[in-house]
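Narrative summary of target 7.
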Amino acid sequence: MRSKKRSGWAEERPFWAVALTNLVLIVALGAAGTALFLYGQQQGQPELLKQVPPPLLVFPFFALWLAYLFWGRGFWREVSPRRFQQLGAADGALLALPLLVVVVNLFDAQTTLAWSPNTLAYYAAFCALVAFVEEGLYRGLFIKWLLPRGWGVAVWVSSAVFGVTHALNLLGGQSVAQTAVQIAFALLFGLVAALLRLRLGSLLPLMLWHFLFDFTSFLGQNPSGNLGLEVLNCVLLALYAAWLYRQQRSA
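Modeled conformation, tokenized:
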């Protein structure tokens, strides 16, 4: 008689799994930021924290862990069941508004073409790393763990955790007002990304969207940002999230 396959600890206690995994990420990022700050003070370079972002020190380890789970343990088919080649024109149309958000962000960043090829390559690699880790974690593992509790729970919890995690930007000297706007935007970004994950069944388009948004953010030299355009992006994402949520409920 074959024994019944047991689910893992994360599937049995998804809320604890999400909370503990995110806590490890937050603590690691906080420790990296503190270490960079202290090292910069000792070397007389207080701006080191901005020059070397904490995710650059932490995310490679999470990327290796996710790569092991996705391809070493075979989780990729569970977190991204549809192949990229299987996505059709209707699926691509769902990405029209997310790409519009990228265009708005491009104007917000006041893009300049004065970057060297090496600098562009560095930011492209960094943004690809962030996109892989954050989408693989929040829209990949977290939704996989939470989905048995209901798609609404999976969408809201993964998005809320994603939004709150961006409060860490306060440690980098960002103002409370800017951080509050970023948390709201991250929450809405997470809602749209999570709902698209359910509709598309693939993480790859979300990773591409995440990469393009972050990359256009780094292209500009406008550190304060344009509040009007940031609010516009939030409104666009909020309306789109509401539409996707309604579509998911009626599916």
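The CA atoms of residues 117 and 123 lie 10 Å apart.
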